[in-house]
UniProtKB/TrEMBL annotation:
The gene is prelid1a. Signal peptide: none annotated. InterPro entries: PRELI/MSF1_dom, Slowmo/Ups. This is PRELI domain containing 1a. It comes from Notothenia coriiceps. Residues 2-174 form the PRELI/MSF1 domain.
């Protein structure tokens, strides 16, 4: 069973600017989890489309319940493949992204299409689709719901990262404020503390049965 999700977004920049920003979006304050990006291959087709494949390394920490099933070095990082096609004739950019790490436990495939807003040529529309699946019998719904929550959170950061990079390209001051930075760090600290508390509680419970 595969869980499907679709959403749309808009960037207040031209399609050309968004395409340039796409290749310049790392690093940005919203992508601290992206460690590396490597181009595997790139070519221009006879129809002048730019076809690329990249390998991304992210610190996408696996949930606690998944860690026992993973090698230690894999529980805190993930490898992602990103294919993209830029079509200057049709003025579209299409990307397909999927994880090659933890794929047997949870697979997330994302397809995005960037195109000119039909009502405002200075804006770019983004249609985003995702397919989330798992091979874990009996826990498929829980895994898919977890994957969907993480995906939605990732989409929010991706859009903010795009807006940040585009603002810098336009010579504007990025909208990210010190208050926003402090709030996000506080949220991350609270989440880490919550996970630590769960671990301690789990360990205490195990000792009771020893």
């Amino acid at each position: 069973m595969v869980k499907y999700y679709c959403c749309a977004g808009m960037l207040k920049s031209s399609w050309d600017q968004v395409c340039v920003a796409f290749w310049q979006r790392y690093p940005n304050p919203y992508s601290n989890h992206v460690l590396t990006e490597d181009i595997i291959f790139r070519e221009v087709t006879p129809t002048n489309c730019l076809v690329s494949r990249r390998l991304l390394t992210k610190t996408n920490r696996a949930p606690r319940w998944m860690e026992p099933y993973l090698p230690k070095q894999m529980s805190s990082s993930a490898y992602i493949i990103e294919d993209s096609i830029v079509d200057p004739q049709k003025r579209t950019m299409t990307t397909l992204t999927w994880n090659i790490s933890h794929a047997r436990l949870m697979s997330v495939e994302e397809r995005c299409k960037y195109y000119i807003n039909p009502e405002n040529g200075s804006c770019t529309e983004i249609k985003r689709e995702a397919w989330i699946s798992t091979t874990i019998y009996g826990l498929s719904r829980a895994v898919q719901e977890f994957g969907l929550r993480r995906f939605k959170n990732s989409v929010t950061k991706t859009m903010k990262g795009f807006e940040y990079v585009l603002a810098k390209m336009h010579g504007e001051t990025p909208s990210r404020t010190l208050t926003e930075t402090a709030t996000e760090r506080a949220r991350e600290t609270a989440l880490a503390a919550k996970e630590k508390a769960k671990d301690l509680a789990s360990q205490a419970q195990k000792k009771q049965y020893v």
